[in-house]
């Protein structure tokens, strides 16, 4: 079996992420509701910028990041549907546009990142 294939013979979309030296490491970025509502991206941006300080760090953390928005558990909407989260994520992405390189290539975040920064159509 080649290194870029999954055991069930389906090719991996991002084979390099699976071979990352940080394979066992995971960077979980927790963003509290208070930070989102205040629009304060500075603490999270500071964490994210550490991953891009050097090429070696950027390669090490490829595909290892995950984001969790806390404080919205009682909200029935999906995180991507919450306007405050969308604005926060858009501001953060404007300052640090490297999500698709660093986020896990499995799970919902790979789908949510583009949606959260896209303009939301007005509902009729």
Automatic annotation (TrEMBL):
Protein's UniProt name: Uncharacterized protein
Organism, scientific name: Lamprobacter modestohalophilus
Organismal lineage: Bacteria, Pseudomonadati, Pseudomonadota, Gammaproteobacteria, Chromatiales
Domain of life: Bacteria
């Amino acid at each position: 079996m080649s290194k870029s294939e999954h055991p069930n013979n389906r090719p991996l979309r991002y084979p390099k992420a699976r071979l990352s030296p940080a394979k066992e490491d995971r960077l979980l970025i927790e963003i509290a509701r208070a930070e989102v509502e205040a629009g304060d991206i500075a603490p999270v941006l500071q964490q994210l910028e550490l991953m891009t300080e050097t090429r070696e760090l950027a390669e090490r953390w490829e595909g290892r990041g995950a984001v969790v928005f806390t404080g919205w558990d009682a909200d029935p909407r999906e995180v991507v549907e919450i306007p405050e989260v969308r604005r926060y994520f858009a501001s953060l992405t404007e300052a640090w546009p490297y999500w698709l390189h660093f986020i896990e290539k499995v799970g919902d975040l790979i789908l949510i990142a583009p949606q959260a920064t896209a303009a939301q159509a007005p509902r009729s």
